[in-house]
Amino acid sequence: MATALSVVAIALALFVLPSACSTVAGFQILFFGALLLLGLASFVLGLFLVRRGL
Predict the structure, then answer these.
(1) CB-based contacts of 16, cutoff 8 Å, min separation 6
(2) Residues 1-54 pLDDT 10s
(3) Which of 17, 30, 36, 53 lies at a 20 to 30 A Cα distance from 9?
């Protein structure tokens, strides 16, 4: 689950990066999007670990 999420995140970053980095606003959107995705991934990982009982 987490690996699939990271693969999707990397593919999305590679797709969005060339067009987004041409402007500062695009870079800010990309940065906050990456932070949001990182938070979501850690939340999913934490939920998975809690359900596993670790």
Answers:
(1) 30, 33
(2) 678 777 777 777 777 666 655 677 777 877 888 899 899 999 988 888 888 886
(3) 53
In the numeric block, the tokens 């995140």 are attached to 9
Closest CA to 7 of 43, 41, 31: 41
3-state secondary structure of 43: helix
pLDDT of residue 1: 65
- pLDDT at position 26: 72
C-alpha angle 34/54/45, rounded to 5°? 15
Planar angle of CA 38, 41, 45, nearest 5 degrees: 140
Tokens of 20: 């987004």
